[in-house]
Amino acid sequence: RHSSPCYPAMKPDRKKRVCVLGSGNWGTVIAKIVGSNSLHSELLQERVSMYVYEEELEDGRKLSEVINEHHENVKYLPGHKLPPNVVAVTDAAEAVRGADVLVFVLPRQFVRTLCATLVGQIKPTAVGVSLIKGFDSEDGPLDLVSNTIARYLKIRMCVLMGANNANEVAAEKVAETTIGCKDKRLVPLLKAIFQTDYLKVSVNDDVEAVEVCGALKNVVACAAGFVDGLELGSNAKAAVVRLGLLEMVRFVDSFYPGSRLGTFFQSCGVADLMTTCYGGQRDSRVAAAFAKSGKTLAELEEEMLGGKKLQARGAIGTRTAFEVNRFLKENKMEEQFPLLTAVHLAATGVAPPNAVLQCVRDAPDYTPMVRNLLVM
Ligand SMILES: NC(=O)c1ccc[n+]([C@@H]2O[C@H](COP(=O)([O-])OP(=O)(O)OC[C@H]3O[C@@H](n4cnc5c(N)ncnc54)[C@H](O)[C@@H]3O)[C@@H](O)[C@H]2O)c1
Questions:
Q1: Hey, whose CA ends up nearest to atom 12 of ligand 1?
Q2: Is 93 labelled as part of a ligand binding site?
Q3: What is the model's pLDDT at position 11?
Q4: What residues make up the domain containing 348?
Q5: Do 182 and 326 sit in the same domain of this protein?
Q6: Residues 172, 228: one domain?
């Protein structure tokens, strides 16, 4: 475990309290990391609260009780023990009481409801870190999830995104991740919370680009999945993924000016894109089955991602493609993002999945755009 050796030791009462909001697959892995880092930290209080959306297990036991008795989230991360200082709390307001750092790691469709229950319950000095992938578009315009949380709770927000397959990180296989944070003073604290021997943290102040990478890569993963499903080969898949990366760069360049190209070379960029497109994850698997079988996406999500759990655990790429498409249409910019547009058209049955290949054939020369970004 790494911690900053030159950071002054804090008095116990000045140590920061961390609360993890979410207890799914990734949420539980993060609670395991934060809990273990907090056990002997100079910066962190030992007790870590984890907000658990209460569920009754098949044997009638309550998930939170099982977590607190057996230190294992048997539903979302079976086979991995949590440190005993991680305490499952089912009341969100109680979980955040006194917390200095709030780690948001739940599916984005539950964010607004959760935030609404937390209004007035948060320390005004608290800092939030969002690990949530996807955009928020419930008000109409496309927005970053971290902006929604900041608006509700009036706190500063950071983000953490990267090539982080939860089960691999749970097994302590080496990975990297990117934290987007504008305030350099928070870096030692954030590293104390998230960095371990097997999870290398890089901090980057290009916060919006970090978050957008995490949202758009799921759309590109759908395009990659279409190529897999149609068995069009690894060259075609690489061409589609490359084009997807360029459209991600163009999207950030168009809507978040001032962002840096270098951010795309961090874990949140090209590395997360690779693991999402090639690592057999939800979005690409569902998209491959869609292209191959001719079934609807809803049928496939139901079949492949587990019936009733659909709403919480469904693939998010096609939903993001829909939101991005609506936003591009409003800005009359669909033509500048042919691959992102083609994924939406294929997912909604307007075009066949192999439309993503036409995008490769018609792709413009992106060199001038990339050159402009490089000099920024
Ligand atoms: N799983 C990964 O490998 C991974 C990696 C990086 C980022 N992420 C992102 O992290 C976020 C959380 O993903 P996850 O894998 O921990 O979740 P998950 O899909 O495993 O679990 C769903 C969670 O939602 C909760 N839930 C269900 N209904 C709810 C409700 N009505 N209100 C509040 N919570 C409810 C469940 O209790 C569970 O904790 C997502 O945005 C995801 O994209 C996931």
A1: 106
A2: no
A3: 53
A4: 209-374
A5: no
A6: no
Give the model's pLDDT for residue 141: 86
Q: What's the whole-number average pLDDT of the chain?
A: 92
**Residue of 217, 292, 295, 329 with catalytic role:** 217
Ligand 1 pocket, residue 27 CB under 6 Å = yes
Q: Average pLDDT of 136-143?
A: 87
Identify whether 270 is part of a domain.
yes
DSSP E strand boundaries for 238-280: none
With 0-12 CB in 10 A as exposed, 13-18 as middle and 19+ as buried, what is 286? Answer: buried
Shortest-distance Cα residue to atom 19 of ligand 1: 313
User: Worst-scoring range by mean pLDDT, 209-213, 272-276, 295-299?
Assistant: 295-299
Q: What is the average pLDDT across 245-269? A: 95
**Residue whose CA lies nearest to ligand 1 atom number 6:** 164
Query: Is 22 marked as a binding-site residue?
Result: yes
308 is catalytic: no
Distance 45 CA to ligand 1 centre (A): 25
Among the listed residues 82, 81, 86, 95, the one whose alpha carbon sits nearest the alpha carbon of residue 123 = 95
Distance CA 68, CA 72 (A): 8
Beta-bridge mates of residue 101:
18, 127
User: Would you say residue 40 has pLDDT above 60?
Assistant: yes
What dihedral do alpha carbons 90, 79, 3, 157 form, nearest 10°?
Answer: -40
76 within ligand 1 shell (Cβ under 6 A): yes
Q: Which atom of ligand 1 is nearest to the CA of 166?
A: 3
For residues 240 and 357, the answer to whether their CB atoms sit within 8 Å is yes
pLDDT digits (tens, 9 = 90+) for 50-65: 999 999 999 999 999 9
Does 123 lie in the same domain as 263? no
Residue of the CA atom closest to atom 31 of ligand 1: 110
110 known ligand binder: yes
Same domain, 164 and 213: no
Q: pLDDT at residue 9 above 50? A: yes
Q: Are residues 146 and 98 in the same domain?
A: yes
Q: Please say which residue of 205, 220, 244 terminates a domain.
A: 205
Q: Number of structural domains, the chain?
A: 2
- pLDDT at residue 3 above 60? no
In this structure, what are the phi and psi dihedrals at residue 302, rounded to the nearest 5 degrees?
-60, -45
